[in-house]
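Design job #97: recover the sequence.
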């Protein structure tokens, strides 16, 4: 899982408020133009404030908690640490776009079934991280799951129910 900042810290620097020319992002499968933005905007800011996608959460804005996790060209990143302009012409998938139908997917429903959602702040990032892991490693064992989710902090659940939710997804997918 890519947890490092893809670029210099988003929003930092004296030139952060320089206007930037419109650019496009392939967002959840659709080309979206970002207009009227400034160069220091993070991908998280653009997703939430300009693209109307509030699913990715802003909890630390420092790359520490994983609540803003999205897929950028197939890799999980912390959207708060990516400059949005660096995502120009890239494919970005947010929690809203994981299921092409726009409906709740099996990972989300297993989180609910296992009682893995309390305040829910961490949940979108965890769902993205689980989606990534099980896409690559459907049979991931317990240790692998723990490692894959180690960048996603949850203050409420104690993680037991989150791990149970992942196990449930694996079980249901196996059963077809
Ligand atoms: S808000 Fe991005 S890692 Fe915490
Ligand atoms: S459910 Fe509250 S932070 Fe995880």
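Job complete. Output follows.
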């Amino acid at each position: 899982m890519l947890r490092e900042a893809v670029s210099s810290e988003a929003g930092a620097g004296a030139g952060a408020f320089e206007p930037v020319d419109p650019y496009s992002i392939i967002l959840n499968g659709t080309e979206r133009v970002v207009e009227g933005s400034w160069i220091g905007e993070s991908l998280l800011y653009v997703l939430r404030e300009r693209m109307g996608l509030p699913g990715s959460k802003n909890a630390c804005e420092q790359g520490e908690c994983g609540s803003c996790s999205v897929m950028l060209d197939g890799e999980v990143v912390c959207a708060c640490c990516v400059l949005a302009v660096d995502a120009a012409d890239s494919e970005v998938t947010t929690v809203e776009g994981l299921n092409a139908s726009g409906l709740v997917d099996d990972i989300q429903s297993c989180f609910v079934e296992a009682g893995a959602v309390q305040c829910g702040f961490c949940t979108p990032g965890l769902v993205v991280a689980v989606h990534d892991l099980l896409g690559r490693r459907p049979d991931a064992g317990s240790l692998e799951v723990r490692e894959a989710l180690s960048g996603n902090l949850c203050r409420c659940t104690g993680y037991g129910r989150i791990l149970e939710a992942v196990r449930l997804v694996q079980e249901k997918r196996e059963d077809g």
